[in-house]
Amino acid sequence: MNGRGGVRNLPFDPHGMIFYHLCRADDAPKYLEDGMARSDGRHYVFDRWEDIRVLIAALDAAVSAEPEYVVLVLDLDADMLAIGPIARRRLPPGISPEDVERLQRHSRYPEVDVSAPRIVDVKNAVGDSVRAHFAPREYRRAPVWRFLSYVRPYWRYVAVATAAGLVKFLVPLVFPWMLRVLLDDVVLKRGIDPNVRERTTLYLVLGVLALNLLWMGATYLRSVYAAVAGHRMIRDLRVALFDHVQRLSHSFFLRHQTGAIVSRVVSDISLAQNFVGSALTNVWMDSALLLALIIILFSIHPMMALVSLSLMPIYVLSLRYIGPKIRLSTREVQQRLEVLSGGLHEKVAGVSVVKGFARETQEAQLFATHANKLLNKVLYSVRYTAANEMVVGFVVHSAPVLVVWYGVTQIIAGRMTVGELTQFLLYLGMFYFPLQRLSDLSVVLSNSLAAIDRVFEYFDTQPHVVERPDARSLPDCLGAIMFEHVTFGYEPDNPVLRDVDLTIAPGENVALVGPSGAGKTTFANLVPRFYDPSAGRLLLDGEDLRDLELASLRRHIGIVSQETILFSGTVQENLLLAKPDAGAEEIEAALEAANAREFVEELPEGLWTEIGERGAVLSGGQRQRLALARAFLKNPRILLLDEATSALDSRAERRIQQALARLLKGRTSIVIAHRLSTILNADRIVVLEAGRIVDLGRHAELLARGGLYAQLYHEQFHHVREEQT
């Protein structure tokens, strides 16, 4: 099928076909350099140019400015895609209902990241290629060089391993020379005294055996020092990556699956480790060995050396063509493994939901589908590896045949001895051994480089919230919070908070209420600077939050979130996260304040009871009360409580409210609660709707005004009365 400008769809192929993706022209350079990350959202693609023309026509009708959109031409495997209707909001206005239905029927999206080599062209609205118009972005050091910077502290280990490796591989070069001397100058040479012959043979053998002892020591040193450098470097890289990931903004964790992040930190870095042991030692050793052998071969017989190298162009072409294929296929294997790991983590964490909806069979089938797609990618990689091995094997095994043919003709002509041919063949075997190992090494390097690229994708991700170089410490905090015309949105064009202006006095208890999606949690998340406002500013004790050290700021803030987060370990270890040096009396007081002491004492080992991942052995209310106790133990100047009592029964909630009243006295607190009964005594209640403050005051004042708060109050308590009757 042809469209304008000669654009043509390829027939469906389970292994690869052409798809089109419409994107902003400003985004094209980024995609061409880094590929399309699934963490940026779903990238919908179409396999028909007519569908793209419908989108372009609608954009042309809706947008007056000259085209800011281009079409990426993608070469994708079918198993990289999932069928999914494009959201109506993602389509431009003016498209007929029939076209909307057709676009949703034809749309798909990649389940994995789309690597840059998969983008084969960029076209304009009429189908002409405009890829040349998109210059690459600013120069950036290749990930491999940045990776090698982690090796610098261990360069001595690498140097020793390389030197030992050179000895390991150069020592065996003596044996062919010894064999030639034995054959030509001892065994086949006439007129030599038998004693001299025996003595010469003994000296040669003992000399080689002595060198073999040196070879043993070099082999040991090479293996140990290469392993030490590799493992220590990988340890440093893994720690640095984890430290970097922890400092990324909250938005990063909203876009990436937990299992996918774990896969990068563990699996990709482990794969990258091969680069240290292989590239940093083997490449130099094998290269030096090859250079030495080429010199030796040409010194023995230049013409025969040329014959032996006559098949080398095939080897070079194989490396140039197959190497990039192996690297791309390995990268896509890791991408598919990341999807599998992310889904597995989600399903294991939500196993109660899976069982509750009796979805074990469906989830097993879905997992099998992803496992099969991973298998397909692995098999693609295996095919390229096998093709590389096949070509190199042909060169390695065919070259000696040519040498034997040429060498025999030279012996017959009397221009070469048997010893020289034997010596040449032994050296040739040694020459192709490192050559074959370099070929295998190219596969390892391709795999490692793909992993290194993925690791440094995370390093290149910068947090949106960055501490200024001259940020100040905040040793003491009164707790005065001021929102000055704050606007914020997770997406630039969709603000969640709009022009929020509010001052909270030190020690004031402020409650946030409003319908779901009003921006209550976002409001609270701006206080510890999990996000920065897109407009306006936040002040703490008169200081702009952006001028304060993050750790110093958050040291004065205690948080109990809507989702209780506990870690594997004991009750005490989870409590001490808030205050590592807390004493027994402080822990007991915090548990008492949170109404948690009684149930903790009833646990099998009290404070030392293992609570499992995310506190799995505790009830929901117990987990909530431990989170409260952790906040009480921190004893911060500012408290953020998001649905802090939502998991408690009515009796426990009353006791907690009494404890909270004592704890909150003299401290600034922001309380989020959908149950208005929990915030009736707040100093002020902020009513949010659609990201704006629509009302503000005490409970009685707000009820008297009869606005949104009164509506929510009457709806909630009317519902409670209905349940009671």
Give a short summary of the structure:
This protein is α/β, with parallel strands linked by helices and about 725 residues long.
Q: Which features does this protein show?
A:
single chain; 725 residues; alpha/beta; ADP-ribosylation fold; ABC transporter transmembrane region fold; Rossmann fold; 4-stranded antiparallel sheet; 23 helices; 56% helix; disordered C terminus
Main beta sheet: strand number and arrangement? 6 strands, mixed
Biggest sheet: strands side by side, in what order? Answer: 11-12-13-8-14-15
Number of strands: 15
Shape: elongated
- Low-confidence spans: 1-15, 720-725
Q: Please tell me the overall pLDDT.
A: 80
Named CATH architecture of the largest domain: Up-down Bundle
Helix proportion: 55-70%
CATH secondary-structure class of the largest domain: Mainly Alpha
- The domain tally reads 4
Distance between the termini: 68 Å
Give the number of helices: 23
Rg is 35 Å
Q: What is the name of the CATH topology of the largest domain?
A: ABC transporter transmembrane region fold
- Briefly note the structural class of the backbone: alpha/beta
Kindly report the oligomeric state of this protein: single chain
Q: What's the CATH superfamily of the largest domain, by name?
A: ABC transporter type 1, transmembrane domain
What portion of residues belong to β-strands? 5-15%
Fold and architecture overview:
The protein has 23 helices and 15 strands. By secondary structure, the chain is an alpha/beta fold. The protein has four domains: 4-133, ADP-ribosylation fold (Alpha-Beta Barrel); 144-457, ABC transporter transmembrane region fold (Up-down Bundle); 479-556 and 638-652 and 668-725, Rossmann fold; 560-635, P-loop containing nucleotide triphosphate hydrolases (Rossmann fold), CATH 3.40.50.300. The protein has a six-stranded mixed sheet with strand order 11-12-13-8-14-15, with helices on both faces. Helix 6 packs antiparallel against helix 14. The longest helix is centred in the first third of the chain and has 53 residues, at 194-246. It is elongated, with a radius of gyration of 35 Å.
